[in-house]
Amino acid sequence: xxxxxxxxxxxxxxxxxxxxxxxxxxxxxxxxxxxxxxxxxxxxxxxxxxxxxxxxxxxxxxxxxxxxxxxxxxxxxxxxxxxxxxxxxxxxxxxxxxxxxxxxxxxxxxxxxxxxx
Amino acid sequence: xxxxxxxxxxxxxxxxxxxxxxxxxxxxxxxxxxxxxxxxxxxxxxxxxxxxxxxxxxxxxxxxxxxxxxxxxxxxxxxxxxxxxxxxxxxxxxxxxxxxxxxxxxxx
Lengths: 117, 108
What we know:
The structure holds 2 protein chains of 2 kinds. Helix content of chain A is 0%, strand content 50%. Chain A is mostly beta strands. Chain B has strands at 9-13, 18-23, 32-38, 45-50, 55-56, 61-64, 70-75, 84-91, 102-107. In chain B, strand 6 (61-64) and strand 7 (70-75) form a beta hairpin. The A-B interface holds A 4, 31, 33, 42-45, 48, 50, 90, 92, 94, 96-98, 100, 103-111 and B 30, 32, 34, 36, 38, 41-46, 49, 87, 91-101.
């Protein structure tokens, strides 16, 4: 019954060691999003894919990259994790983009909690 | 996205209605009001959204004022499992900008 799956749920990495978080979806949705949520803060959008079209938020650090090899999967790569990158990383999907006359809801996965040592 | 203002926390007794207010006085005509909630250590969950009219679904009701400057999310019979952070978002685009939300604590 799982719709947006994130693996692993908990990830520990070392300072500066590249790490990849994965997200898969069974909803066949066109749009996939990555959010970062630090402790006691609201989720913050990093980037999103509309199909294969990548959309980066202006303030997302270059250290964060993403790949979407097919409709079902999306990856978040952190090239050189720093202590400040410790956070919950949330993946979400929506069927399509919102438009002027209609909107679409986002479905979130359970998140991956990243610890940087 | 228009800025939204919510109280940082609210309490509610189990079985009673929880009324969560949201101010969005600068909302523009094409922006919807969305409500999501986030139970501790889980991903956010969509609750409801609306543009002008009041909306109701199996989870909640959304009351939007006629001038659209504020709204209220109503959980008609709150349960302990409704304890969560509730986010009100005004957006006309596919991306959502989460504010600080309201921490709703439902007590026995």
